[in-house]
Amino acid sequence: MKTALITGSAGLIGAEACRFFHDKGYKIVGIDNDMRKVFFGEEASTDWQRRELEATLSRYQHHAIDIRDITSVEKIFAEYSSDIEVIIHTAAQPSHDWAARDPHTDFTVNANGTLVLLEATRKFCPKAVFIFTSTNKVYGDRPNFLPLVELETRWELHPEHPFYEHGIDESMSIDNSKHSLFGASKVAADILVQEYGKYFGMYTAAFRGGCLTGPGHSGTQLHGFLAYLMKCAVTGTPYTIFGYKGKQVRDNIHSYDLVNMFWHFVQKPRQGEVYNAGGSRFSNCSMLEAVSLCEKISGKKMDIRYDDNARIGDHIWYISDVRKFRSHYPEWDYKYGLEEILVQIHSALCKRAA
Q: Facing residues of 254 across strands?
């Protein structure tokens, strides 16, 4: 049976991919050892989602292994090698701040783990499609040197700049900028994914995500912007904004819309591609604008605090230009906008708390 192997299968994008590809008739081999709990504590554990996948997907098989463990990874690839058509690699250490606390773990998970999976793919199923969830942090702090204008509730790009209408495209250099150690480890993985496509002729793509979000996110202070913000709105937990007057802008893409991108790529795969993949001008907001929306949806006034110290390497303004992907896959389009995403997150949080 055609099989999709998905790492980080109980996480936001991994679980969405499990459901999506299961609905398309795939057998799902999930790899997830709940490292998110190790990184961010009990509140960030994805074990609840693993249990849900096992209960609701009849063709889901879970493997709680570490992607850095070559022997264990290759054993799974060998077992399913004749059936694996797609590898969706979403497992990662995803936080700027956490990476600086433990650079060795961050790099080995993000870079070495990706290498282990690429080599296993080349060894056991080289014709399979390999999809990697990269990040806009591969551009480092270079977007912060764009000409920005301060407005009432957000920073905005100067209207005369070429990126203004559609956002930042893949032509932006990833070189000679401050990435954070997390960004650096993801750059290494991103380049490896490209290289296995271009050097070995494999079908690979790195999707450089904006803020990936949705109701399946186990948001925490260090990762999961919208999910954690709404969680604070629902529970009354204080939320701290770090720097830039709360006017920093993010584009937000629903996990379904990103996985639907993956699906379109799988239908007509290419070798060594990179795509910016965020909410673009369709779905974006500043921190202040997101707070207002969370208050509107939850019906509660939030306890917002402010720290002048911006996170190192954090973006002031980032909106993804997704036109390259659209040019290759014109039938793809967004399904969920910003407010609908937040309504879904609010509903999911209330349901889980009940």
A: 213
The residue among 141, 113, 190, 116 whose CA lies nearest residue 317 is: 141
Residue that the structure tokens 């954070």 belong to: 180
CA–CA separation, 134 and 115 (whole Å): 14
Report helix, strand or coil for 94: coil
* Strands 148-150 and 155-157, bridge-based pairing: antiparallel
Give me Rg for the CA atoms of the chain: 19
> How do residues 301-347 score in pLDDT, each as one tens digit?
999 999 999 887 789 999 999 999 999 999 999 999 999 999 999 99
Sign (positive/negative) of CA torsion 264, 266, 271, 274? positive
Q: Are 79 and 29 in contact (CB under 8 A)?
A: no
C-alpha span between 139 and 190 (Å, rounded): 11
Alpha carbon 241 to chain centroid, angstroms: 21
What is the set of domains in the chain, with CATH numbers?
Answer: 3-353 (3.40.50.720)
Q: What is the pTM of this model?
A: 0.96
6, containing H or E segment: strand 3-7
